[in-house]
Amino acid sequence: MDEDGLLAEMLALADRLAASDDALMAGQYALLRARIAALIELRAFGADLAA
Amino acid sequence: MATSVADPFAASPLLRRFAGATREELEAYQLRKVQALCARLYAKSDFYRARMDEGGLKGGAVDSLDRFAKAFPTSAKADFLADQQVAPPFGTRLGVDRGDVVHISMTSGTSGQGQEIYGRTQRDVHMLGYLHALPWYMGGLRQGDNAINCVPAGGMTTGGWGPGEALRIMGATGFHVGGNTSTEAKIDLMLGLGGVHFIYASTNYLHTLTEALLARGITPREAFPGMHGIFIAAEGYPLEWAAKIEEHWGCRLQEGYGSTQLNGFGGSTGSAGVFRANGERGLMRLFEWEHLVEIVDPETGAPVKPGEQGEMVVTNLSVEGSPVVRFRTGDAARFVPWQLCGGGAWNAIECGTIGRFDDMMKIRGNNVWPSMFDAAVFAHPEVGEYKGRVYTRDGKTEVEVKIAVADHHANLCEDDRAALVQSVRAAIKQRSNMWVDVCEVPRAEFQGFAYKARRWADERQDGYRL
After folding, report:
1. Where does B361-464 sit in CATH, by number?
2. What distance, in Å, lies between the first and last C-alpha atoms of chain B?
3. Alpha-carbon gap, residue B28 to B120, rounded angstroms
4. What predicted TM-score, i.e. pTM, was given to this entire model?
5. Shortest CA distance from B165: residue in chain A
6. What is the ipTM of this complex?
7. Domain with CATH 3.30.300.30 in chain B
8. Are B123 and A38 an interchain contact pair (Cβ–Cβ within 8 Å)?
9. A-interface mutation test, from B126, B165, B287, B288, most A Cβ less than 10 A away
């Protein structure tokens, strides 16, 4: 499974959600985006070698 | 060992990827991270921009790790505290906009100098959890486990939040018993959980918990037969003690080195335990794709040679909020380069012997660390706890060590107790080159050590009062 590729797609989707103008959801969408960004970050070492 | 879990490397392709990298690949990755970090901080942080200008790193440009280590000036706790005074609360070290800070981590303030404050972004908070989960996974923690966290949870410290985040993102059930429940109540809770798989505790508290179980006539490996691992941090210990712990609990003991500056753990014994194959002290392999760790001579700043003890200078490569670049930790560690670690490209530090340069006591011309005394005293399983005092008498420096017999050895006869005192005294002499006064006191005198033990008092200045 291409987990790194899937996460990149999810980050793009989360970026679109983060553009929402719902003030109640804004922080939660930011959290969702940050979780995905963190997973990409922590997987980054060797990702180019694994690809 | 009574229980084992699947090899963490076999069960995680990601971990195998990290473990399979060559030293060249690791250092190339570190350089890319350092370059991105310096460029970002040059644009965002007045504190670090001034540091880079001072070192001649124009525009934050870094072309090699060697140049980075030679040109980027180190910082220390006092620099961060001064920065915070000028621009409270975070100083001018933030690498993001103030509005992106959603969490803070403060140091404990036990040094007496003041508390550093670090801003964390949402991503940093996940990484805080991950940098606890990574070593714990290697140490046996698995999804679905019952995990006992004996470190006080919550508050404003890294140790207060990291464990909870880690257990949640691992999918384990966290029982955060530290701080707010007595040892007896913790034991009652553990006995009623239908199984305990993982324990995280300070070295000192694991000792207290084990001692309390044994005093109740409970053998941990029989009461908790499903243990996957025990993970300790914060204090040194003798190997004799570690062997006893593994025997009592029937599982491997692992150790990690972490700090607020690292946003969690910077290295651990992985799944290898605290002994090497030859029975000597084990190694904490450093997570060098997350942190750049230099081990240097505290006087000259030059890298120490393999096998030598030096001060850890750390750079966090992934923190967004309040990054730490070439921070002098004051922590003393023995450096073991990757070539001597028996495989893999990660450097290591010796486990069980992390000390503090600022804890060093100069006694009768000897450089002495509390960890030396810990090792000498706790090599005796009959000892439950001890306290040390350095003081002045008739113009001479004296050292007094009070030991207390563990509750589960309370039936020691008078002769055995006298022999124990003499044996502890001889062990201290062997490790520190000093004869000191040793006496026995009741165990009840030492109640209240919960997380980090404060065993030593230096009262020499009192001896000079007129």
Report:
1. 3.30.300.30
2. 59
3. 27
4. 0.85
5. A35
6. 0.93
7. 361-464
8. yes
9. B126
